[in-house]
Design brief:
By secondary structure, the chain is an alpha/beta fold. It is 34% helix and 23% strand. It has helices at residues 38-43, 66-77, 96-109, 138-150, 162-166, 188-191, 194-202, 218-228, 281-296, 301-309, 336-349, 368-379, 395-406, 419-429, 458-468, and strands at residues 10-12, 22-25, 48-51, 60-62, 86-91, 114-117, 122-123, 128-129, 155-159, 175-180, 208-214, 236-240, 247-255, 258-265, 270-276, 319-323, 327-331, 354-358, 382-385, 413-415, 435-439, 446-449, 452-455. The protein is globular.
């Protein structure tokens, strides 16, 4: 391979951003292959092009994987910022944002400056940015790491999405702890099969010093077993709400105000009473995971429990946004598994009916739509099916697909293309003691219609509707 001595002043994989002196990384995507533009990028002033094959160009660097090379180049460009941070990553279909947010909350409470990268936002310990992707692309990801270092962050907690792992957005970093929450059907529009989806998640643990795995689902059990028998991954720990594990809960009680249980830490042979303000059995698991991570980082488990008990919850995750004659809860549940969990949780403390408002996202795994409808119909008392980021799809057609899963059951339902009208109807129908679950938006404050992000904050909408009524 030829080596070139050039001063590179920037790195990009976007042909629109190439400037004189920059390196252009040729990545083959679903609809565009950057290799086809490499020659033009040199003509545009690029110092070099990074490719996966010989293009016969004067200033080309050939690598095995340009996606990984892009991450490595961005890391080098920002002077390897992660070498100055202690990294924690959380992966799984559901629970990533909650667990990652709770870990950050504990570390902050213990006096350690902690950055955050996830679905809710990007926090660099000096500025908070709106997030576009749970795990941003290589150029933005390493820019955020660098900003954290500049702001004297000690830790960074991040969500590691399956797409990001499959696309090598992370440059072979070393994580102090990697967490696996669960795996259920989602993102098959991208991964095609559950096996490919699982393997993408599993790849995170090639980069982890310690693995913390929930064994309450079959994929977690499989992952724990596979990592245990792999010599280089011998620091494997487990957590559970159903089985004996390294960290588990007993005497669990749930209610509308949260959960209480006794946290068993078999590593130190201690146990601790826990009172956590987020309701639902799944939040027992989320709270156990967050305390376990901090314990594995070397902090006293009891201090971590006390820090978590002070946490008021996570935005858009089992978030009570109104509690009066009836209760309104906002949750990000946008998969069948997440809907089942939030509905099952609500049933534990519901005094009357559960009214579930939900939709299915456009241009995402369409096979899960009727499955979501069937699960919601099985567990709720009344359904309101509406829009949730339809993008360029017809929202009425999406709703019709969700309906197919409801029709075999007797649960009453109504449909509204307009989500605000759907919320207004839900509130007008709510009776004393009812729980109204607004599922799918969670922390989001917009509806994606076409390529426009239209302002849509369910908290403000509920507030205004209740005040006006």
């Amino acid at each position: 391979m030829k080596l070139y001595d050039y001063e590179v002043t920037g790195v990009t994989d976007d042909t629109r951003n190439v400037q004189e002196g920059w390196a252009f990384v040729a990545i083959k995507g679903e609809s565009f292959d950057g290799h086809n533009a490499a020659r033009d990028m040199l003509s545009k002033g690029a110092a070099m092009v990074i490719t996966e094959r010989d293009l016969g160009l004067e200033r080309q660097v050939i690598v095995e994987n340009t996606r990984l090379a892009y991450a490595q180049a961005m890391s080098a460009f920002y002077n390897y910022p992660t070498s100055k941070l202690k990294l924690i990553a959380v992966t799984g279909t559901n629970g990533k944002s909650t667990v990652a947010s709770l870990i950050k909350s504990i570390l902050d409470s213990l006096g350690h400056k902690t950055g955050f990268i996830g679905t809710i936002n990007y926090d660099t310990c000096g500025k908070v940015y709106n997030s576009v992707l749970s795990t941003p692309r290589q150029n933005e990801l390493y820019s955020l790491f660098a900003e954290m270092v500049q702001n004297n962050a000690e830790y960074c907690v991040m969500e590691a999405s399956s797409q990001a792992l499959a696309q090598y957005r992370i440059a072979g970093e070393r994580f102090e702890v990697g967490v696996f929450t669960n795996l259920t059907q989602d993102h098959l529009d991208y991964h095609k099969t559950m096996e490919a989806y699982y393997q993408a998640k599993k790849s995170l643990f090639d980069m982890c010093e310690n693995a913390l795995i929930c064994i309450d689902n079959k994929y977690g059990k499989r992952l724990a077993n596979e990592l245990i028998i792999t010599p280089q991954n011998n620091n494997v720990f487990t957590y559970s709400i159903n089985e004996l594990a390294g960290f588990y809960g007993v005497n669990i009680k749930t209610g509308g105000g949260g959960v209480s249980y006794r946290l068993m830490d078999t590593l130190t042979e201690q146990s601790f009473p826990m009172n956590f303000k987020m309701p639902g059995m799944f939040n027992v698991a989320n709270s156990i995971a967050s305390v376990a991570v901090c314990s594995l980082l070397g902090f006293d488990t009891g201090e971590c429990v006390r820090a978590l008990e002070k946490c008021g919850g996570v935005r858009g995750r089992s978030e009570v946004i109104y509690n009066g004659k009836f209760t309104v809860i906002c949750d990000y549940a946008h998969t069948e598994d997440a809907l089942v969990k939030i509905l099952t949780s609500a049933r534990e403390y519901a005094e009357n009916r559960i009214i579930c408002l939900f939709g299915a996202a456009g241009e995402r795994d369409s096979e899960k739509r009727p499955i979501m409808g069937a699960s919601a119909a099985r567990l709720a008392d009344y359904l309101i099916i509406t829009s949730d980021n339809p993008r360029f799809e017809d929202p009425a057609a999406i709703i019709s697909q969700v309906e197919e899963g409801c029709k075999k059951l007797m649960t009453p339902y109504k449909t509204f293309v307009d989500r605000k009208e759907a919320i207004e109807f839900a509130l007008s129908e709510a009776q004393e003691g009812d729980i109204v679950l607004l599922c799918g938006k969670g922390h989001e404050v917009c509806q994606v219609i076409g390529d426009e992000e239209q302002p849509f904050d369910e908290r403000e909408i509920v507030k205004q509707l209740i005040i006006n009524n």
